[in-house]
Design brief:
This protein is an alpha/beta fold. The protein contains six helices and 15 strands. It is globular and about 55 Å long. It binds ribose-5-phosphate (R5P).
């Protein structure tokens, strides 16, 4: 993959923020993968951390790397969470959920004192929305919920996998909203959240503390805290 070098560099840099004794949220996706792999190497060399996984896939990866895992409900807070994103704007607002893990990712990031976002340079945008916004909805009468989302001019399309509805780790559906331009991300998030049937949106508003971006050669750190 063309962006793998950038994802690796950003992921490895993000992993350096983790210190001994921390409880760390472990993100989901191809960029978070590199951060988790770097943490696994540090754990093999004696780093003492405990992780909370944001998806079943990440749980499997962390177990393979012998990173001790906790359940989110068993910890009062997390010191830090590391995760990728699908888009990051200049204010640090995010679209996440391209991999379908947005609900657990948001729960984990909300519990963290510091949320480190890791992206390759192609994810940096002036305005959110070119990437279709994932919205997690309950399967019951999902078309009704999708219609309410469509009424907000969000152009939802049910996510499919192998010709069947994509099912999240929480047993829900995802609709990907082809907004093209999201002028007011916080307002749109609020409007969507008010719809019965919507579980969570992929808009992560005012959550990122730091964004680590790489183009494969250099790494840039932006502080949003
Ligand atoms: O649900 C998936 C997550 O929000 C990912 O963090 C996001 O889609 C970015 O994934 P990737 O690093 O694979 O582009």
């Amino acid at each position: 993959m063309a962006n793998d070098a950038a994802k690796k560099l950003a992921g490895e840099h993000a992993a350096t923020y983790v210190e001994d004794g921390m409880m760390v949220g472990l993100g989901t996706g191809s960029t978070a993968f590199f951060a988790i792999q770097a943490l696994g190497e540090r754990v093999a060399n004696g780093l003492n951390i405990q992780g909370v996984a944001t998806s079943k896939d990440t749980e499997v990866l962390a177990q393979k790397l012998h990173i001790p895992l906790l359940a989110l409900e068993d910890v009062p807070y997390l010191d830090m969470a590391l995760d990728g994103a699908d888009e990051v704007d200049e204010q640090g607002q995010l679209i996440k959920g391209g991999g379908g893990a947005l609900l657990r990712e948001k729960l984990v990031a909300s519990a963290a004192k510091k949320f480190i976002v890791i992206v390759d340079a192609s994810k940096e945008v002036k305005q959110l929305g070119a990437f279709p916004l994932p919205v997690e909805i309950v399967p019951f009468a999902w078309e009704k919920t999708a219609q309410k989302i469509a009424d907000l001019d969000c152009h939802p399309v049910q996510r499919q996998r192998a010709g069947k509805p994509f099912i999240t780790d929480n047993g829900n559906y995802i609709v990907d909203c082809h907004c093209e331009k999201i002028e007011h991300p916080a307002e749109l998030h609020q409007q969507l959240k008010l719809l019965t049937g919507v579980v969570e949106t992929g808009l992560f508003i005012d959550m990122a503390s730091v964004c680590v971006t790489s183009d494969g050669q250099t790494t840039r750190v932006r502080d949003f805290a």
